[in-house]
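wait is this the right file?? whatever heres the structure
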């Protein structure tokens, strides 16, 4: 279920209008996503809740980059990464309820080192989600170090143009238990209790 949740969470994250070409690429924070998951009974309360915090980099002709941190009331936590190859794609303005993915190969290049991986590819949105849990950490560490990262998929190499660290990125790193050494204040779920949940999965 968690692999499915990660994929759906990546697709339900709100899309924002593309920035003007002249605007610099910076990390911006999206609205938090609180997702209720109830797959075993017809009760009103979800089996668990999943909070997803998202930061995004977009603009220019480069792919749209997204890092997200997912925490559930059941104790699961994950750092996730996705890239939308076509920054002008408008699929998420009217996204399907059940997106279909197929798997493709890609090669990420960092500091002259190549990392072949498999990705889930959603053709309608041109979004890629890595199947390996190492990829999000690789991207996160590249931002911390200021590395240039390129990704070759479908016969084309693209510069991911990762922005430098800013206050948004630092706040995200401090919030996420995957990147802050495991610290997370579970009271945040109570604070968000009155927030509208995304549709149950």
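ok assuming it is, sequence goes like this
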């Amino acid at each position: 279920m968690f692999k499915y949740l990660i994929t759906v969470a990546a697709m339900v994250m709100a899309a924002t209008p593309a920035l003007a070409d002249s605007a610099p690429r910076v990390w911006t924070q999206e609205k938090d996503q609180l997702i209720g998951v109830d797959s075993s009974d017809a009760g009103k309360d979800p089996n668990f809740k999943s909070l997803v915090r998202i930061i995004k980099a977009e603009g220019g002709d480069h792919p749209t980059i997204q890092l997200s941190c997912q925490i559930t009331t059941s104790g699961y936590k994950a750092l996730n990464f996705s890239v939308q190859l076509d920054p002008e794609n408008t699929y998420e303005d009217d996204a399907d309820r059940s997106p279909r993915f197929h798997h493709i190969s890609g090669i990420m290049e960092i500091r002259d080192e190549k990392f072949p991986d498999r990705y889930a590819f959603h053709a309608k949105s041109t979004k890629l989600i890595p199947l390996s849990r190492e990829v999000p950490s690789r991207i996160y560490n590249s931002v911390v170090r200021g590395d240039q990262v390129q990704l070759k998929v479908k016969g084309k190499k693209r510069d991911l143009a990762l922005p430098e660290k800013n206050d948004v990125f630092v706040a995200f790193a401090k919030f996420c238990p995957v990147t802050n050494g495991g610290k997370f204040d579970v009271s945040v779920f109570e604070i968000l209790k009155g927030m509208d949940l995304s549709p149950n999965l």
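The beta strands are 28-29, 33-37, 48-57, 64-72, 77-84, 102-110, 113-122, 127-130, 149-153, 156-159. so i think its the right one actually
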